[in-house]
Amino acid sequence: MRLTISHTTRYRYDRPASHALQQVRLTPKSRAGQSVLEWETEVTGGQKQLAYDDQHNNHVELVTFDPGATEIVIASHGVVESTNGTGIVGPHGGFAPLWYFRRATPLTRPGPALRRLARELARAGESDDVQNLHALMSTIEQAVRYDPGNTDSGTTAEEAVEAGHGVCQDHAHIFITMARVLGYPARYVSGYLMMNDRVEQDATHAWAEAHIEGLGWVGFDVSNSISPDERYVRVATGLDYREAAPISGLLVGAGTEDMAVTLQVQQ
Question: Which residue range(s) make up the domain with 94?
Answer without folding.
Answer: 88-244
